[in-house]
Amino acid sequence: MMVNSFKTSRERREEYISSLITDEMRAQEECDTLVTSIDGMLDEIEPSVTSKYSIYQVPQKIRKLNEEAYNPRVVSIGPFHHDDERFKSMEVFKKRYFKKLVRRNGVHLKNYVEFLKYCEASIRQCYSEIIEMDSNKFVTMMLVDGCFIIELLLKRYYRDYRDADHSILSAPRLWNDIYRDLILLENQIPFFVLEGIFNLAMTNFYLTPLLNLALYFFEDYNVQQKPPASFISIKHFTDLILILHRPTSQREVKEFQYASSATELDEAGVKFTMGSSNCLLDIKFCDGVLEIPHIMLSDKTESLIRNLMALELCHYPADSYMIDYFFFMDFLLNTPKDVDLLIQNGIIKNWLGDSKQAAGLFNNLNKNIVIISSNFYFSSLCEKLNAHCKVTRHKWKAMLKRDYFCSPWRTASTSAAIVLLALTFIQTVCSVLSAAKGN
Fold first, then answer.
1. pTM here?
2. Rounded-to-integer distance, Cα 102 and Cα 65, Å
3. Cα 423–chain centre separation
4. SS (H, E, C) the chain
5. What gap in Å lies between CA 213 and CA 242, rounded to an integer?
6. What are phi and psi of 294, to 5 degrees?
7. Band of the pLDDT at 14, cuts 50, 70, 90?
């Protein structure tokens, strides 16, 4: 009985050890299978090409604030909005323009297709999202959209190219929507695609370079009169408009500082005046005078600014000028009263309606956007303004001017009161002296 009991215990021990070995082997197999699966997942991930991205879908946290500002109204360019049913009617005009361009100089259609097929991989890498579109459809879309844009630029520049189709598209309301849609960040094709198609189409013609045509087309935004030679690299039309708004001066690397509102600065004795510069960012402060270039607000403003800011946020996060500008203006314009102050000084032309709408525009543009505090373009300006506000005599001087010398009548009454007070004081002194002499 003792032996049998001992064997039974031994057998149980062996079975237990065997089960442990089996479980360990099973766990090892499961681990190996999981490793193989994860390794396969890693192999499927393509190498990062972030540096090649230039056309982005607007981040959802920004887009949700105003969807309409980022969506095309009448024409789709590129893949992001290509299959939207709203733009099917415009496809007819796009194909007509495509036909006119490729048939004009006798260049074989095969040449265009070969160029785009050769560049297809590079074109796809310009988009921040994977384009789920087969090669033939993708190349066809690029060719039709590219030719439409080039023909549109040619018809805008050369009157001889204009026809019945151009008369339809140039109707004011439709033209304004097309003009707007061509600036949207999600509605772009790479500029090198346009250049390649343009060079093929114009093989037998000596015409103005494509960049010159684009600058003429968007001349409303080239208020600084930047020449074509100043553009080293252009990624697409949104990028072109952004470059047209940038200043020529380099930014100073300084820590971020807040600035007071316009009414607070006014109370501290800061005088506002409209700047003579055509660059929005050329804001100066000297001898108590804040000089701000003129800005016009209309129903087109928000869409334009939001798309330029979205491009900076996605592509130029460490070199954002428009974002910095509207952060600074957001400091200044907290209330309708702040807006009124800048309107009175000719700085803002408000076509939005009332000052409350204008203040709301400036207050909402920067929502969900974070700036790089160590690289804020207006840091030095904010530093100067804050230093001015800390000087007490500036506030007293401003208060005296505002409360006692704000108009000719107020100045006259204040001066009369001062004279009367002085005469009263002199009379009192004389009376005291006379009384003292008599005693």
1. 0.81
2. 41
3. 63
4. CHHHHHHHHHHHHHHHHHHHHHHHHHHHHHHHHHHHHHHHHHHHCCCCCHHHCCECCCCHHHHCCCHHHCCCCCCCCCCCCCCCHHHHHHHHHHHHHHHHHHHHCCCCHHHHHHHHHHHHHHHHCCECCCCCCCHHHHHHHHHHHHHHHHHHHHHHHCHHHCCHHHHHHCCHHHHHHHHHHCCCCCCCCCHHHHHHHHHHHCCCCCCCCHHHHHHHHCHHHCCCCCCHHHCCCCCCHHHHHHHHHCCCCCCCCCCCCCCCCHHHHHHCCCEEEEECCCCCCCCEEECCEEEEECEEECCCHHHHHHHHHHHHHHHCCCCCCHHHHHHHHHHHCCCHHHHHHHHHCCCEEECCCCHHHHHHHHHHCCCCCCCCHHHCCCHHHHHHHHHHHCCHHHHHHHHHHHHHCCCHHHHHHHHHHHHHHHHHHHHHHHHHHHHHHHC
5. 17
6. -65, 140
7. low
CA distance 138 to 123: 10
Using a 10 angstrom Cβ sphere, with 0-12 exposed, 13-18 middle and 19 or more buried, the burial of residue 154 is buried
Beta-carbon count within 10 A of 284 CB: 14
Q: d(Cα 109, Cα 143) in Å, to the nearest integer?
A: 10
Report the distance separating Cα 40 and Cα 17, nearest Å. Answer: 35
Measured CA to CA, the distance from residue 303 to residue 360 in angstroms comes to 14
Instruction: Report which residue type is found at 131.
Output: I
Q: How far, in Å, CA of 421 to CA of 396, rounded?
A: 21
Q: Which residue has the higher pLDDT, 255 or 408?
A: 255
In this structure, are residues 244 and 224 in contact, taking their beta carbons and an 8 Å threshold? yes
Tell me, what's the pLDDT at 52? 82
Half-sphere exposure of 339 (CA within 13 A, CB side): 22
Q: Long-range CB contacts (< 8 A, 24+ apart) of 160-168?
A: 165/93, 165/96, 165/97, 168/93
The C-alpha atoms of residue 362 and residue 329 are separated, in whole angstroms, by: 7
* CA distance linking residue 287 with residue 179, whole number of Å: 42
Residues 70, 329 contacting (CB under 8 angstroms): no
Say what the pLDDT of residue 263 is. 93
**Spatial separation of the C-alpha atoms in residues 163 and 158, rounded to whole Å:** 11
- pLDDT value of position 173: 87
What is the per-residue pLDDT across 380-400, written as a single tens digit (0 to 9) for each? 999 999 888 887 544 544 444
